[in-house]
Amino acid sequence: MASLHEITEDDVRTPLIGLMAVAAAALAGCGGGNSDGGVRAITIVGSSTVYPFNRAVAEHFTRNNAGFSSPVVESTGTGGGMELFCAGVGTQHPDIANASRRMKVTEFETCQQNGVDQIIELQVGIDGLAVVTSPEGPQFALTTAQIYEALAAEPWGEEQDNENWSDIDPSLPNIPIRVYGPPTTSGTRDAFVELIMEAGCETNGAVEEMEDDRKDEVCTDIRSDQAFIEAGENDNLIVQKVTQNPGYLGLLGYSFLEQNEGSVIGVAVNGVAPSYDSIASFDYPGARPLFIYVKGNHLEAIRGLREFVAEYVSAWGPDGYLVGEGMIANPDDVRASNAAAAEAMTALTLEDLQN
């Protein structure tokens, strides 16, 4: 009996029709696709921010679909998840990647080169990159420019010599700059750089005079001393660190702020505090869309993949259970367009990413 687990590296390089032929033989020979039949469960990797939402969908999917295996959901960070997802076609590779920022063009191109040429992009909701602190420490608001100046390796091309928040603005507390944040593999880190660092950098007109490469370096490089402390992919760990160190700030997904209300509180950025409404309206500077990427090449080979996507669609509305988990629902038109893409399994194109 053929087994999906026997797909080799040569199989990964075969055209989609070859994979489907192997899958069809496996499914026919195994008499189904549950855990007893030898066909593996749906595998999901990626963003630690999206992880709790996918875990909730996986639990409901399992309860509602007794004939399918429970999905395996792993938190690897957005970048790490994309690397695994784009590595190839075949059951040794994941079926879904979570992302707390949109797929990069370079990732899309890697996918294509490795035969992952049917990628379904679904914006499943909205989250906020929240700046948080302990209620036990000094309370203060910040601007994107102040955050940038505090954490840039070379703020506006100058030497970084800010040690305390008051060095940036005398009205800020005279306490050391200490911020817990995610590593470079995290989509939350990417979102922080794009939404906060670059926005703050561009408030100074001098950067517009720089060459593109130099501007990119000045606006995106984060200082590597103790002012910015990488705390791993686990947002709950950042909550713990901030709670234990009043006066320190943390960068994490809004859902973790909501779940730990009282232990940490949101810091207003540009005069707007992180909240459901301010993120849903994109008034809060850290508002960002959340995505899942489904490997269309696996739709026929992995039983339950379509049903899992359908479960997601049923859960992402304003009255769905994902809002209870801390997700912010997409606007009506965005939900409708993504539901249509989920139904048709419309493949992402390079032009889509570039628009």
Describe this protein with a few key phrases.
9 strands, 9-stranded mixed beta sheet, alpha/beta, D-Maltodextrin-Binding Protein, domain 2, about 350 residues, disordered N terminus
What secondary-structure arrangement, pairings included, does this model have?
Layout: H1 9-13, H2 16-30, E1 43-46, H3 51-64, E2 72-73, H4 78-85, E3 96-99, H5 105-113, E4 119-133, H6 144-151, H7 165-168, E5 179-181, H8 187-201, H9 212-220, E6 228-230, H10 235-244, E7 249-253, H11 254-259, E8 265-266, H12 276-280, E9 287-295, H13 305-315, H14 321-324, H15 332-344, H16 350-354
What report would you give on this structure?
- The longest helix has 15 residues.
- Strand 1, helix 3 and strand 2 form a beta-alpha-beta unit.
- Strands 1, 2, 3, 4, 5, 6, 7, 8 and 9 form a 9-stranded mixed beta sheet that branches.
- It is globular, with a radius of gyration of 22 Å.
- It has 16 helices and 9 strands.
- Helices cover 40% and strands 13% of the residues.
- It folds into 2 domains: 189 residues, Periplasmic binding protein-like II (D-Maltodextrin-Binding Protein, domain 2, 3-Layer(aba) Sandwich); 160 residues, 3-Layer(aba) Sandwich (D-Maltodextrin-Binding Protein, domain 2).
